[in-house]
Specification:
By secondary structure, the protein is mainly β. The protein has no helices and 11 strands. Strand 4 and strand 5 form a beta hairpin. The protein is globular.
Length: 128
Protein backbone atom coordinates (compact mmCIF):
# COMPACT_ATOMS: atom_id res chain seq x y z
CA UNK A 1 0.00 0.00 0.00
CA UNK A 2 1.26 3.44 -0.89
CA UNK A 3 2.63 5.48 1.98
CA UNK A 4 3.22 9.11 2.75
CA UNK A 5 6.09 10.03 5.06
CA UNK A 6 6.51 13.52 6.50
CA UNK A 7 9.80 14.90 7.76
CA UNK A 8 11.36 18.20 8.72
CA UNK A 9 9.49 19.04 11.87
CA UNK A 10 11.16 20.33 14.99
CA UNK A 11 11.49 23.12 17.50
CA UNK A 12 11.91 26.67 16.26
CA UNK A 13 11.66 30.12 17.78
CA UNK A 14 8.87 32.48 16.84
CA UNK A 15 9.73 34.26 13.62
CA UNK A 16 11.78 31.35 12.38
CA UNK A 17 11.31 29.01 9.44
CA UNK A 18 10.93 25.31 8.76
CA UNK A 19 10.40 23.28 5.65
CA UNK A 20 8.41 20.07 5.85
CA UNK A 21 8.65 17.34 3.25
CA UNK A 22 6.16 14.65 2.35
CA UNK A 23 7.55 11.76 0.35
CA UNK A 24 5.22 9.35 -1.40
CA UNK A 25 6.28 5.76 -1.87
CA UNK A 26 4.26 5.39 -5.06
CA UNK A 27 4.91 7.26 -8.30
CA UNK A 28 1.16 7.43 -8.88
CA UNK A 29 0.99 10.26 -6.36
CA UNK A 30 2.71 12.52 -8.87
CA UNK A 31 -0.63 13.33 -10.55
CA UNK A 32 -2.72 13.57 -7.39
CA UNK A 33 -3.74 16.69 -5.49
CA UNK A 34 -2.01 16.88 -2.12
CA UNK A 35 -2.90 18.69 1.04
CA UNK A 36 -1.30 19.76 4.30
CA UNK A 37 -3.24 19.74 7.55
CA UNK A 38 -2.37 20.30 11.18
CA UNK A 39 -3.71 19.37 14.56
CA UNK A 40 -2.91 21.21 17.75
CA UNK A 41 -3.47 19.62 21.17
CA UNK A 42 -7.13 19.59 22.07
CA UNK A 43 -8.19 20.88 18.67
CA UNK A 44 -9.59 19.37 15.52
CA UNK A 45 -7.41 18.73 12.53
CA UNK A 46 -7.53 21.74 10.22
CA UNK A 47 -6.70 22.54 6.63
CA UNK A 48 -3.43 24.35 5.99
CA UNK A 49 -3.09 24.28 2.23
CA UNK A 50 -3.33 22.16 -0.89
CA UNK A 51 -1.69 21.89 -4.28
CA UNK A 52 -2.95 20.39 -7.51
CA UNK A 53 -0.86 17.80 -9.32
CA UNK A 54 0.58 20.39 -11.69
CA UNK A 55 0.92 23.12 -9.03
CA UNK A 56 -1.39 25.24 -11.14
CA UNK A 57 -3.78 25.59 -8.21
CA UNK A 58 -2.52 26.26 -4.70
CA UNK A 59 -4.84 27.21 -1.86
CA UNK A 60 -3.99 28.28 1.69
CA UNK A 61 -5.91 28.74 4.89
CA UNK A 62 -6.26 32.38 5.85
CA UNK A 63 -4.25 31.78 9.00
CA UNK A 64 -1.11 30.86 7.02
CA UNK A 65 -1.56 32.84 3.81
CA UNK A 66 1.51 34.92 3.05
CA UNK A 67 3.67 32.93 5.49
CA UNK A 68 3.49 29.35 4.20
CA UNK A 69 4.34 28.10 0.73
CA UNK A 70 3.44 24.74 -0.77
CA UNK A 71 5.38 23.26 -3.65
CA UNK A 72 5.99 19.85 -5.15
CA UNK A 73 8.56 17.92 -7.12
CA UNK A 74 6.69 15.24 -9.03
CA UNK A 75 9.89 13.66 -10.29
CA UNK A 76 10.75 12.91 -6.66
CA UNK A 77 7.17 12.21 -5.54
CA UNK A 78 7.60 14.86 -2.84
CA UNK A 79 5.51 17.76 -1.61
CA UNK A 80 6.93 20.57 0.52
CA UNK A 81 5.54 23.02 3.03
CA UNK A 82 7.78 26.00 3.61
CA UNK A 83 6.80 27.82 6.79
CA UNK A 84 8.12 31.32 7.45
CA UNK A 85 7.41 33.85 10.19
CA UNK A 86 6.29 31.05 12.46
CA UNK A 87 4.09 31.86 15.44
CA UNK A 88 3.48 29.93 18.64
CA UNK A 89 -0.06 29.24 17.42
CA UNK A 90 1.42 27.29 14.50
CA UNK A 91 2.48 24.61 16.98
CA UNK A 92 0.84 21.36 15.92
CA UNK A 93 1.37 17.99 14.34
CA UNK A 94 1.48 18.52 10.60
CA UNK A 95 0.14 15.93 8.21
CA UNK A 96 0.27 15.56 4.46
CA UNK A 97 -2.55 13.81 2.68
CA UNK A 98 -3.52 12.70 -0.79
CA UNK A 99 -6.85 13.30 -2.50
CA UNK A 100 -6.77 10.19 -4.68
CA UNK A 101 -10.10 11.09 -6.26
CA UNK A 102 -8.49 14.23 -7.62
CA UNK A 103 -6.14 12.87 -10.23
CA UNK A 104 -4.98 15.05 -13.07
CA UNK A 105 -7.29 17.91 -12.12
CA UNK A 106 -6.49 21.58 -11.77
CA UNK A 107 -8.65 21.97 -8.70
CA UNK A 108 -7.98 21.27 -5.04
CA UNK A 109 -10.23 20.65 -2.08
CA UNK A 110 -10.08 22.16 1.41
CA UNK A 111 -12.33 19.46 2.82
CA UNK A 112 -10.53 17.01 5.05
CA UNK A 113 -12.89 14.16 4.20
CA UNK A 114 -11.71 14.25 0.59
CA UNK A 115 -8.24 13.09 1.55
CA UNK A 116 -7.86 9.34 1.78
CA UNK A 117 -4.16 8.70 2.34
CA UNK A 118 -2.39 10.26 5.29
CA UNK A 119 1.12 10.40 6.58
CA UNK A 120 2.01 9.76 10.21
CA UNK A 121 2.56 13.42 10.95
CA UNK A 122 5.52 15.48 12.09
CA UNK A 123 5.61 17.71 15.17
CA UNK A 124 6.25 21.42 14.79
CA UNK A 125 6.77 23.40 17.97
CA UNK A 126 7.19 27.17 17.91
CA UNK A 127 8.49 28.75 21.09
CA UNK A 128 7.72 32.33 22.04
Amino acid sequence: QAQLVESGGGLVQAGGSLTLSCAASDRSFSNIAMGWFRQAPGKEREFVGAISWSAQSIVYADSVKGRFTISRDNAKNTVFLRMDSLKPEDTAVYYCAADTNNRGSYTVSVQIQRYEYWGQGTQVTVSS
